[in-house]
Design goal:
This protein has 411 residues and is an alpha/beta fold. The protein has helices at 4-7, 20-32, 76-95, 132-150, 172-177, 179-183, 186-193, 224-231, 249-258, 283-293, 299-304, 332-337, 357-366, 396-410; strands at 10-11, 17-18, 36-39, 42-46, 58-65, 68-73, 99-102, 105-108, 162-166, 198-206, 262-266, 309-314, 387-388, 391-392. The two termini are 31 Å apart.
Length: 411
């Protein structure tokens, strides 16, 4: 969900409540038949100046209609509307018996494409009158509490539902530098959600470059060798971090050992290409583990002890060739090299990377794992603009594979 138009509540001609969030939820359940759903509400930040794009000057939300929207400042009414919209969607997921994941994002509100992973923010600090806690975390926690209360009667005699509440997603730099501030949010949020669910709190990290604060919007031009060197941390592809606050290694260890129950990873590590070995999908986890070990955190030990869960909470193949999101990859090797590049905007047949048979074949290899449902990554066609009068990114073959996999897991 990328703006107000995705959670805004409307009344149908029959008097029923409807929102794009509900529409996506129902379609995702039909096409994946999963027992879990991951909600990714997205707000936006405005930097204080053009040369400080990885800092926060204020927050905004996308409004209007998708594709013809603008970022406007927050108000108490808009926060209330966000909370109410998410309450309805959470309640419907609970009625459907789904385990709920929450993984909020921040995107660059200027449209210049600065990367959230490098964003430096303090979650309780007010920037231009509003904090991330005020506009994102508190209303989400309140919405979950209301949804649990509304559906409590449906769960008589059943265990409490499990809620996986990540406080952010793919925003590593802020966690590396302000871990104590993030840890301090867990108990206040737990109290806001209330006692009707078993809530596990976590964070969302990128698979690598955890300490990178160079928020760039450049169009990346690189060979496979230079890109792989950057991905493995062997070169400083993005340039120096600049005047960022120092890493807080002691605070980070306390965060992992005392406050978190899970870590979600954006698992976009490059693949070798068609016929890739299944073990390559482990590269994201091992790279993350290596970087955390360098900071004194034994993630493998925490996972083996049962103290921490590792989630592949975001993955997909986008089929793009440039950061700009306008150029399709012309070969499966190019798709595999940069799985996080895709094609933005509503579906257009002329810019569909999966219309190339070789690209489609690779997509069907990878989509047996997990799926990011937005733009050209959206192989299930969950997001509304994934389907237009020109066609759809939805691949019924992949949907069938996902349903079969999920059915086998439940047996």
């Amino acid at each position: 969900m990328i703006g107000e138009f995705d959670w805004k509540l409307e009344q149908t001609s029959k008097g029923d409540t409807w929102s794009r969030c509900l529409d996506m939820l129902w379609r995702g359940v039909e096409r994946a038949e999963s027992s879990e759903v991951n909600f990714v509400p997205t707000h936006h930040w405005i930097p204080p100046s053009a040369d400080r794009s990885n800092e926060v000057g204020g927050y905004c939300l996308m409004s209007g209609t998708n594709g013809h929207n603008k970022c406007k400042g927050w108000s108490d009414q808009l926060v209330s509307d966000f909370r109410d919209g998410m309450t309805v969607c959470f309640a419907e997921a609970l009625r459907l018996g789904l385990t709920i994941g929450i993984r909020p994002h921040l995107d660059d509100g200027t449209g210049h494409g600065a990367w959230r992973n490098a964003l430096l923010l303090e979650p309780r600090k007010r920037y231009n009158g509003a904090s991330y806690y005020d506009i994102m975390l508190a209303p989400l926690a309140d919405a979950m509490r209301s949804a649990l209360e509304q559906t409590q009667g449906l769960r008589k005699g059943q265990p409490k539902p499990t809620i996986y509440f990540a406080m952010q997603g793919e925003m590593s730099a802020t966690v590396m530098r302000y871990p104590r501030e993030w840890g301090a949010l867990v108990e206040p949020l737990r109290k806001r959600v209330g006692p009707l669910a078993a809530v596990k709190f976590g964070i969302g990290l990128n698979w690598n470059r955890l300490d990178d604060t160079s928020s760039t919007s450049q169009t990346y031009q690189s060979s496979r060798l230079s890109w792989a060197a950057w991905a493995l941390g062997l070169s400083d592809f993005f340039g120096p971090a600049g005047s960022a606050p120092p890493l807080d290694a002691a605070g980070l260890r306390a965060l992992f050992q005392q406050h978190l129950q899970f870590v979600g990873v954006s698992a976009y590590a490059p693949l070798s290409g068609p016929g890739f070995a299944t073990k390559e999908l482990e590269n994201a986890a091992f790279t993350l583990g290596d970087e955390m070990r360098n900071m004194g955190i034994d993630m493998q030990g925490l996972i083996d002890s049962g103290a921490l869960e590792l989630h592949y909470s975001e993955y997909g193949l986008g089929g793009g060739a440039r950061y700009s999101g306008t150029t399709i990859a012309t070969s499966p090797s190019e798709v595999a090299l940069r799985p996080f590049f895709g094609i933005y905007g509503p579906y257009r047949s002329a810019s569909d990377p999966w219309s190339l048979p070789a690209n489609r074949a690779l997509q069907r290899e990878v989509s047996k794992v997990f799926i990011w449902c937005l733009a050209s990554w959206d192989v299930l066609g969950v997001y509304p603009e994934a389907t237009t009068s020109e066609g759809s990114y939805h691949d019924p073959t992949v949907s069938a594979l996902v349903r079969a996999h999920n059915a086998a897991v439940r047996k």
